[in-house]
Amino acid sequence: MKEEIKSCHLGPEISPEQFIPEHIFLYLAKGLMLGYDGSKKYTLKPDEYCLLRKNRLARYNKQKENGDYEKVAVIFDEVFLRKFQQKHKISATKSPLAETFIPIEKNKLIPDFVRSLKPYYKGEGKIDKIFADVKREELLIIILQSQPELAGVFFDFGIPEKINLEEFMNRNYKFNVGIERFAFMTGRSLSAFKRDFKYIFNDSPSHWLVQKRLQEAYFLIEEKNRKPSEIYIELGFENLSHFSFAFKKSFGQTPGELTGKKRNSTAKN
């Protein structure tokens, strides 16, 4: 299977931003996946699998193994889940589970399921659309038979409730998502989010986010000896050039220049 089914997915396309809009089942065939949800780190190894929970912030980095990284991702979008719930007449109460990366218990049916995708695999990361929903339904049945408590996760169609905005932003400012996402996740309309943000931080969300990330960057370079190329992505900047430009505008020097001064100072001492 691993040699013939390369990384593929079933279900609708998912935005590459660091927000999970739909539940995602992830099976790792080769390589390593390192995940972070703002408070906890996760590691997924070959032949392991998990559920990435919708309406959460997450950053996950892939590491190749002998030049390879292969995964199978199955997206359980709300439209599909509502149809599934109606068809199978499943009732569910809200789950108390808090994890963003929810572990799926070892189940011999899941590797069998992944192998069963082979006849339908058309290459280029796709399974024949005609069979996609059938296979998604099969997988969901396997998961729910093994862990029925996950029904409370899959079939929770509510939207995030209003939460403490100051606490949330100070914990999640490093994630590269739009202001609209932050508003949604704090249970607010965009206008209410901007109003509350101004009242709490006396600043606009966009300006505050950039300055907060830059302050953290300065600290990491100056105090922790981190390299600019190592930190710009984890701080929510899209590319190194944008990070360097914003850093110099704020501190009068580029991250590289600060690194050089730090190195020279250390050498003299």
Offer a few descriptive terms:
single chain, 269 residues, alpha+beta, Jelly Rolls, Arc Repressor Mutant, subunit A, 2 domains, 5-stranded mixed sheet, 3-stranded antiparallel sheet, 11 helices, 12 strands, globular
- Beta percentage is 15-25%
What name does CATH use for the topology of the largest domain?
Answer: Jelly Rolls
Overall pLDDT level: 90
Broad CATH class of the largest domain: Mainly Beta
Strands side by side in the biggest sheet: 1-9-3-6-10
Could you state the CATH homologous superfamily of the largest domain? Regulatory protein AraC
Q: Give helix % range.
A: 40-55%
Overall spatial form: globular
The count of β-strands is 12
Number of helices: 11
Rg (CA only): 21 Å
Coarse structural class: alpha+beta
Main β sheet profile: 5 strands, mixed
Order of helices and strands: EEEEEEEEEHEHEEHHHHHHHHH
Indicate how many domains the architecture comprises: 2
- End-to-end distance: 57 Å
From the 3D coordinates, which CATH architecture of the largest domain would you assign?
Sandwich
Query: Poorly predicted ranges (pLDDT <50, ≥5 residues)?
Result: none
InterPro entries: ExsA-like_N, Homeodomain-like_sf, HTH_AraC
Protein name: Helix-turn-helix domain-containing protein
Domain HTH araC/xylS-type: 163-261
GO molecular function: DNA-binding transcription factor activity; sequence-specific DNA binding
Task: Characterize the structure shown.
The protein is of the alpha+beta class and 269 residues long. The chain folds into 2 domains: 8-154, Regulatory protein AraC (Jelly Rolls, Sandwich), CATH 2.60.120.280; 165-268, Homeodomain-like (Arc Repressor Mutant, subunit A), CATH 1.10.10. The chain is 44% helix and 18% strand. It has 11 helices and 12 strands. It has helices at 78-88, 109-116, 129-146, 151-154, 165-172, 179-185, 190-201, 205-224, 228-231, 240-251, 255-268, and strands spanning 8-10, 19-20, 23-30, 32-36, 41-44, 48-52, 56-57, 59-63, 70-76, 101-103, 121-123, 126-127. It has a 5-stranded mixed β-sheet with strand order 1-9-3-6-10. A hairpin with a 2-residue loop joins strand 11 and strand 12 (126-127). Helix 6 (179-185) crosses helix 7 and helix 8 (205-224) crosses helix 10. The longest helix has 20 residues, at 205-224. The protein is globular and about 60 Å long. The termini are far apart. The mean pLDDT is 90.
